[in-house]
Specification:
- The protein folds into 2 domains: about 160 residues, no CATH class; about 100 residues, Immunoglobulins (Immunoglobulin-like, Sandwich), CATH 2.60.40.10.
- It is an alpha+beta fold.
- Helix 3 runs antiparallel to helix 4.
- Strands 3, 5, 6, 9, 10 and 11 form a 6-stranded mixed β-sheet that branches. Strands 4-8-7 form a 3-stranded antiparallel β-sheet, with no helix packed on it. Strands 1-2 form a two-stranded antiparallel sheet.
- The protein is elongated, with a radius of gyration of 23 Å.
- The chain starts with a helix and ends with a strand.
């Protein structure tokens, strides 16, 4: 295999690996829709319940392919409160049932349960209530570059780690690109996304316990140290391996864990929840 073909193969492997990690992080987080299926009235009912929504409009809860004769209702209350449950009936649109949850302020949460109804029979879709968190809308011109840079940071981090293990010649340049993408995606655009979504630029250490902010800062510092050592001497390749391992560990933590949460009693946004 030629050097060019080997390099292309390694880039393909790094890309596939990064895509897998990105999908894992996104789908295991607490804001990813709760998916599943239950048997009801001899029918399999598939559901996908929202766990994240924008605070400037109602959250649309939809059940698809529901047979005639089966209806549904939704009961909800603000999260971590003892207020009475409120009820919303689903509206039928052909084979779909749709209910609208009223929006909450940024970082506000609702706990809701969906019930299927047929005659006198009523059954909850899930055992525990589903928790949905609201956030301020983030403009695409901020969100898309943030996601792109974070993906590229993980891609170059993986590729740099492979290059270090293979004792390749491009460790220094790959480390530099990793650091740049992580800076723009995580340290620059990340706080801007946070500001739009929850009203604060930074809620990690030392101001709060937001896990996303803290793990991003930790990964950036790891790559900053690695790059400085590698820049001094490219033989310090083990620093790239360590930094790549740190960023991988960060990405294996589900997205939005221990994020912002509105405390309804205090009227303040708490972090690390």
């Amino acid at each position: 295999m030629t050097q060019k073909a080997k390099g292309l193969t390694l880039w393909i492997l790094a890309t596939l690996f990064t895509l897998g990690i990105a999908v894992y992080q996104r789908t295991t987080g607490p804001t990813y829709p709760a998916n599943g299926a239950i048997e009801y009235q001899n029918n399999q009912i598939n559901y996908k319940l929202l766990r994240s929504a924008n605070s400037d409009e109602p959250a649309t809860i939809k059940l698809s392919d529901i047979p005639q004769g089966i209806e549904a209702e939704l009961q909800y209350r603000r999260f971590k409160t003892d207020e009475p449950l409120k009820k919303v009936d689903f509206m039928r649109q052909e084979t779909d049932l749709i209910a609208l949850l009223p929006p909450e302020p940024p970082a506000g949460k609702l706990a809701y349960t969906v019930y299927l109804i047929s005659g006198d029979e009523k059954q909850a879709i899930t055992i525990e209530p589903t928790i949905i968190r609201f956030k301020g809308p983030v403009p695409d011109y901020i969100l898309i570059p943030h996601i792109l840079f974070m993906f590229l940071a993980m891609l170059f981090s993986s590729r740099t780690g492979i290059e270090a293990l293979a004792k390749g010649p491009r460790i220094k340049s790959y480390s530099f690109y990793t650091l740049i993408f992580l800076f723009f995606g995580g340290m620059l655009l990340g706080p801007v996304v946070q500001k739009f979504a929850f009203g604060e630029y930074w809620t990690g250490w030392p101001f709060g316990g937001d896990l996303t902010d803290n793990k991003t800062a930790f990964a950036f510092l790891g790559w900053l140290v690695a790059y400085l050592f590698i820049r001094r001497n490219s033989k310090n390749r083990y620093w790239a391996i360590i930094a790549a391992g740190i960023l991988l560990a960060v990405y294996l933590i589900p997205h939005s864990m221990f994020g912002s949460e509105l405390d309804y009693d205090k009227g303040t946004i708490e972090t690390g929840k």
